[in-house]
Amino acid sequence: MTERDITLVVNGTEHELTVEPRTLLVHALRDHLGYTGPKIGCESTVCGACTVSVDDDPVKSCTLLAVQADGAEITTVAGLTTADSLHPLQQQFREEHGLQCGYCTPGMVLTSLDFLSDNPEPSRTEIRAALKGNLCRCTGYQNIVDAVESAAEDIPDHESW
Ligand code: FES
Ligand code: FES
Fold first, then answer.
1. Ligand 1, closest atom to CA 48?
2. Does the C-beta of 101 come closer than 6 Å to ligand 2?
3. Is residue 109 within 8 Å of 93, Cβ to Cβ?
4. Is residue 106 a contact partner of residue 76, using CB atoms and an 8 Å limit?
5. Which tens digit of pLDDT belongs to each residue from 48-60?
6. How far apart are CA 38 and CA 50, in angstroms?
7. Is 100 in a helix, a strand, or coil?
8. Could you tell me whether strands 57-60 and 73-75 are parallel, antiparallel, or unpaired per DSSP bridges?
9. Is the terminal CB of the chain with fewer CB neighbours within 10 Å at N or C?
10. 3-state SS assignment for residue 91
């Protein structure tokens, strides 16, 4: 199979890599580049554990071929953290106990980030609807919804996201 040279900008760092055309973006990120934020769950677009931001849109990276993301700017959950602080969404997941094993958390955070940028004052029903493509086996979702709701209420920080 003919390999392809592609470029991915991940969390602000440009990477050139060579992949097979069949390589999924999640495997390029994890196995080729060492970004372990996106998790591999179902590999069939169901669970959302692999969600990353691709050119500012949340994308399930098991659904996209790496070659399709050639030239894209990608943000993983680690890219939201600065040297001295967590992103407000990460902070609220921590404070509201919105995770147990944490496997779903990167996808939950990145999906919520995009959702709140479009809807900064959501209802709990809207939060639940926004996260319907992200599955959690641990929390029962209540604390995840609490975390997103609290982050949305954190208006001063929210304006600077
Ligand atoms: S691993 Fe991608 S949606 Fe489940
Ligand atoms: S915290 Fe374990 S899957 Fe969500």
1. 3
2. yes
3. yes
4. yes
5. 999 999 999 999 9
6. 4
7. coil
8. unpaired
9. N
10. helix
Q: Is 18 a residue whose pLDDT tops 70?
A: yes
pLDDT exceeds cutoff 70 at 39: yes
48: left (phi over 0), alpha (psi -120 to 50) or beta: left
Tokens standing for 100? 């147990």
CA dist 25 → 13, 133, 150 (Å): 16, 18, 31
pLDDT at 161: 58
Q: What lines the ligand 1 site, CB under 6 Å?
A: 40-43, 45-50, 60, 62
Ordered DSSP codes for 17-73: EEE-TT-BHHHIIIIIT---SS--S-SSSSS-TTEEEETTEEEETTSSBGGGGTT-E
- Of ligand 1's listed atoms, the one at least distance from the Cα of 47 is 4
- Supply the pTM of this predicted model: 0.94
| Spacing, Cα 79 to ligand 2 middle (Å) | 20
52 CA distance to ligand 1 middle (Å): 11
- Whether residue 133 has its Cβ less than 6 Å from ligand 2: no
